[in-house]
Write a structure and sequence with these properties.
Blueprint lengths: L13 E7 L2 E6 L5 E3 L5 H9 L1 H4 L2 H6 L1 H16 L5 E6 L5 H8 L2 E7 L2 H10 L3 E4 L12 E7 L8 H11 E12 L22 E2 L2 H10 L2 E10 L5 H16 L27 H20 L7 E9 L1
Parallel strand pairs: 4-5, 4-7, 5-6, 7-8
Antiparallel strand pairs: 1-2, 2-3, 3-9, 8-11, 10-11
This protein binds zinc ion.
The site of zinc ion (ZN) has 8 residues, from loops.
């Protein structure tokens, strides 16, 4: 374990924010950044992530094609307002659906992901270009990308300033960085009391708009746009209603499937085909998307959990 201080302010003092899974997140007194300290060292983190293939439900992620495609199209609509074509890099490309959609829109996409089976599925089944590894381990030509994109990746980065400088170096001057992340640092720590919703220590840093602006400014980016969508489905009442509705549909007529045995001896089998789109899931994704991105864009965001989409340009 190693103690860390704020990446922006150094040691300006912290206050306790939230504890879960035996880890503690603190908030910086200087800028409000929320981060885990002490945290596992890089070596310890690697060991934690080595169990990841059994921890992340790879099959579920690959089957969830409807949601992945929906999110990809939304992101590409936004990217399309600023860049119509060119080389695009996605960091944390998972099953590769975003890259496939990006290719269909005329981009020349490349992905990076640390999870081997995802990389195999994306390259062998979707036929997209993905490198297995991290931003630090994969060799890519500096200044060779027009767009860098990542979604729900930022909180996992152990060294966000270094990572953003690497993204900057990969972009041509004037290139576009688009990313999506939460707004945890804007909310009081009490909001998470008794929950594991911050996913510590997988999520090492939590930002809000103010801290995202600091991160961009310190790493050579000019922010063009920050879009805020209130996550209305994460509010307690609608969330409970949605879960009830889902359980109504999901368990009708068939008993709940037993949890698969997390057995290290049985490795995940990479599917050889793209799963067919399912009607119910497609409808659910459209309703979720409407609530999050259409209602969530106009709902009051004060004190609410939100997803932030940031568009920045490399200076
Ligand atoms: Zn700070």
């Amino acid at each position: 374990m190693e103690a860390v201080s704020c990446i922006f302010c150094g040691d300006r003092g912290t206050r306790p924010y939230h504890a879960e899974n035996g880890y503690e997140a603190v908030a910086c007194e200087g800028c409000g950044l929320v981060f885990v300290t002490p945290r596992p060292t890089e070596g310890e983190m690697k060991r934690l992530y080595e169990g990841q293939e059994t921890k992340v439900d790879l099959g579920l992620q690959i089957r969830n094609v409807e949601r992945a495609v929906y999110e990809a199209r939304r992101a590409l609509d936004l990217i399309g307002r600023h860049a119509a074509s060119g080389r695009l890099l996605e960091i944390g490309s998972a099953a590769g659906y975003f890259l496939r959609e990006a290719r269909a829109r005329g981009f020349s996409p490349t992905g990076i992901d640390i999870t081997g089976p995802f990389v195999r599925y994306a390259t062998e089944v979707l036929g997209v270009d993905v490198h297995e590894g991290t931003l630090a381990s994969v060799e890519l030509s500096p200044g060779s990308f027009d767009v860098v994109y990542h979604r729900n990746v930022l909180s996992h980065l152990a060294y966000p300033l270094d990572a953003f400088r690497q993204m900057h170096a990969l972009l041509r001057p004037g290139g576009l960085l688009v990313f999506q992340t939460g707004n945890v640092a804007e909310l009081p720590g009490e909001r998470w009391a008794g929950t594991n919703e911050l996913d510590l220590p997988d999520h090492l840093y939590h930002f809000g708009e103010k801290q995202l602006r600091l991160l961009a400014e310190r790493t050579g980016f000019e922010i063009l746009d920050v879009q805020r969508y209130a996550l209305l489905l994460h509010e307690p009442a609608p969330r409970a209603a949605l879960l009830r509705l889902q359980s109504l549909f999901r368990t009708k007529g068939k008993p709940a499937a037993p949890k698969p045995q997390k057995d290290k001896a049985a490795p995940f089998v990479v599917p050889t085909e793209v799963p067919p789109a399912r009607l119910l899931q497609t409808l659910e994704v459209l309703v979720d998307g409407y609530i999050t991105y259409d209602l969530g864009a106009v709902a009051s965001k004060e004190g609410r959990r939100a997803t932030l989409v940031v568009v920045a340009r490399a200076r």
